[in-house]
Amino acid sequence: MDKKKIAEWLAQGSVAVPKLLLNHYKYLGLSEGEFVLLLHMHSFIEDGVLFPTPAELAEKMTAAPSECMEMLRRLLQKGFIVIEEHTDEKGIRSEKYSLQPLWEKLVQYLYTEWAKEERQDQQEEEE
Amino acid sequence: MDKKKIAEWLAQGSVAVPKLLLNHYKYLGLSEGEFVLLLHMHSFIEDGVLFPTPAELAEKMTAAPSECMEMLRRLLQKGFIVIEEHTDEKGIRSEKYSLQPLWEKLVQYLYTEWAKEERQDQQEEEE
Amino acid sequence: MDKKKIAEWLAQGSVAVPKLLLNHYKYLGLSEGEFVLLLHMHSFIEDGVLFPTPAELAEKMTAAPSECMEMLRRLLQKGFIVIEEHTDEKGIRSEKYSLQPLWEKLVQYLYTEWAKEERQDQQEEEE
Amino acid sequence: MDKKKIAEWLAQGSVAVPKLLLNHYKYLGLSEGEFVLLLHMHSFIEDGVLFPTPAELAEKMTAAPSECMEMLRRLLQKGFIVIEEHTDEKGIRSEKYSLQPLWEKLVQYLYTEWAKEERQDQQEEEE
């Protein structure tokens, strides 16, 4: 097998999925399909494709473009992603997805869990 | 919010998902649910849990333990994972999952695709 | 080249280095050599080697074991790592390194920077 | 501490460093400083900065811009990186760094090591 080709494979790199997200996406209300769609979106954005279409997502998923469209609609509606206006250095306007709300939901969830634990610890001390 | 707690969150780290796998799991015959189960399994193994149970997997997935059991059975049967005998330094035997077959399937797929491209390039040159 | 071998290479995985750490290690007082030693330590721990020796670290670095020992001493003294007592399920005690203080230092640094920015923003508003 | 801020920190993500590279950079002839410079370069490229200057690199490293310039020169000369001409969709030409030669050197090294092992195994069988 060609060494150049193997080098190209290695060069493609990895998407780093925080264990905090892997371990808690379910508790944020995400299904496995939605979670994987978000991974693909993250990977597209990292590669410079800031507004992947349902068709582009469907090419990598076992879902049809219409199902990806439906998932996107649901993720937007439930507030996991937002569409932002983006103006490049030449002043050309375009749209892009941002995953920032996903991270805010995750931090909110972690904080609530942590506050619960703290309260329990305090109650146990008082008893 | 507590700085110690935030440090603990950061310390949990990430699972690095090769883009080669993210972009091609579908073509290997994996569904999104199976792909995510393999991510969880990888994460468990990295944390020292070498043989996660269906119940442990189900705790992190939107699937019931019985569904996780069924997925595990299917992944074993289709040859994405294997169960290996593992003997620790004290001679105690236990079982562990290995994802090695998954990587072999991925390389086999990439190789076949690459050979196809090579043949096409050659044909185009000959024409 | 052997496909099994290439699969083994892919299977080795990656260490995910948070960009927060990559971008700020210098401001925490770490040199490039110390930063890389911490990456190696993280990688060893992930692979189940909880207390890598200076010789094991030196095998992967351009530094001699004595230099690695010196770096370890300095990282312990400056409070980036700690040695913890670790008792396994059979009650056998051993030592292990923890990088938890590194993450606490990073959060403390980020927090201080953030508080500075907040103050500047406030002052600008008041003027 | 502000939850929005913590979410921004989490959102910054990680650079995935293949263990193959972490474990063998030394044997490719790279120092820890050069290895970290390559990590920074990879991170810059991922964030859309395709041709980071010595000054931009120096801001994140304990080295002065002149030292980063010297390291870049050495990495180019030893063939770990190359400068490529890049033309964007508007036809504007610019330069960018490519790490492709690094991965080819790594594969070449792994292949040579593997061939050595194979030969040793064969000799042992013959004896």
Rg of Cα set of chain A: 19 Å
Runs of chain A in which pLDDT lies below 50 for 5 or more consecutive residues are none
| Number of strand segments of chain A | 3
Give the mean pLDDT of chain A. 94
Give the distance, in angstroms, between the N- and C-terminal Cα atoms of chain A. 68 Å
The geometry of chain A reads as extended
Q: What structural category characterises the helix and strand content of chain A?
A: alpha+beta
Number of helices of chain A: 6
> Remind me, CATH topology of chain A?
Arc Repressor Mutant, subunit A
What is the highest CATH level, the class of chain A?
A: Mainly Alpha
Strand percent estimate of chain A: 5-15%
Major protein interface: A-B, 31 and 31 residues
Percent of residues in helices of chain A comes to 55-70%
Largest sheet data of chain A:
2 strands, antiparallel
Summarize the structure.
Chain A has helices at residues 3-11, 19-24, 32-46, 54-58, 65-77, 100-126; strands at 14-18, 82-87, 93-98.
Please characterize this protein's 3D structure.
Four copies of one chain form a homotetramer. Helix content of chain A is 59%, strand content 13%. Chain A contains six helices and three strands; from the N terminus they run αβααααββα. In chain A, strands 2-3 form a two-stranded antiparallel sheet. The model of chain A has no long low-confidence stretch (mean pLDDT 94). Chains A and B meet through β1, α2, α3 and α6 of A and β1, α2, α3 and α6 of B.
